Amino acid sequence: MILNYPGRKGTPSHPALQRAPNVNLLLGGNGSGKSSIFKAIALGVLAPVIPSSGLKAEYFVRRTAGEGSNTAASVQNGVSSGNRVPSESAEIKVDLLLEKSDTDLPQPKTIPGQAIIIGQAVITRRGDVEEIATAHTDPPSWDGIYENNSPSFFLAAYGAGRRTERPEGYSEQNRTPRYQRVAGLFEEQVGLAPFTYAYLQLKSRGAFENARQILNALLIEENITLTEQQDGLDRPLFDNNGVLLPFNALSDGYRAFIGWVWDLLLQISRVLPYNATAYRLADLSGVVIVDEIDLFLHPAWQRRVVDQISQAFPKIQFLFSSHSPLVAGTLEAQSIYVLDSGDNGAVIEQYDENIFGLTANQILTSSYFGLSSTRAPDAPQNDLVRLALSDKEEDHQSFLRRMVKDIPQE
User: In which band, very low, low, confident or very high, does the pLDDT at 99 lie, cut at 50, 70 and 90?
Assistant: First the structure.
């Protein structure tokens, strides 16, 4: 599958996108492999440094009963497919189309534009123990990944169990900075940076005001803004319909969304020059993964969240997953990938059916979700619905007569 990324030029088989051109959305039922694809991408991109990052490999290799084969996740140029490999190992191959992180951002090494390098990771299982070994091509092109503070190879990932930690006892020890940014995909106990902790770091780096502007732009229709005011505990306060509140007093929905966005802004600031006000946080290029982008969001917010994020970070390539028809209905068919689980692993498809702008009911009964009806399974069927869904011509005529009869007469 060809993933969309900022600046991608259209082709006859894959025309340029008009909406959210830097967004890719994965759909699929529970257990279809969405999270596995995200993990494979993270492992492939970070291949050279992942063995020493602090990641403990566990249950990456699929267990099978007796002899058989395992399916490896493979992402090439944004292309993902399944390859059969022995059940004792899983192989990940990622072809990365590289750009310089940004032409005006200083880097330890310059990455040539449009260069392709290959990241490979092989996870081998011996009994109940799994080990990760990596190999990669064109070593000079990887130089930036070995620098913790380099903007090269920027990747951040947020799992479906994401939550913002409290400051007490929070630690980023025992994990390299690059792995820390994706650890929530692999370890459910790893939380996001505490809001106040991130605020203090953003402030010390001269990036707080820029971060506040980006966050408030994403919240503009939610009647909530991050202010410059603080309470007695040096916590920044939110104006929620005229009431000033600290982050931990906000609703679950606000904290779930603000938490990962604020963490992302912190991670971006860490690879930009200290107090370099000339560099905006939205100028950084990279890849960001968010599992269940609609987590805790009201339907009204689901209808606009993807477009808002796409515009707020135009140089970031986003990979989202969702179970929401409202989220799916904001994207063109070329941005949506549907996963299904087969005997040999995940099957990934793109459909020709366009669902942009359709109602939730229409989307749920489309090929993307495949529901035969959005009604409760045991709900009694309305007589008019029965006539409309009938395959008998006389029932259709009866339906039309009853509809005309109910039209008010002038």
Answer: low
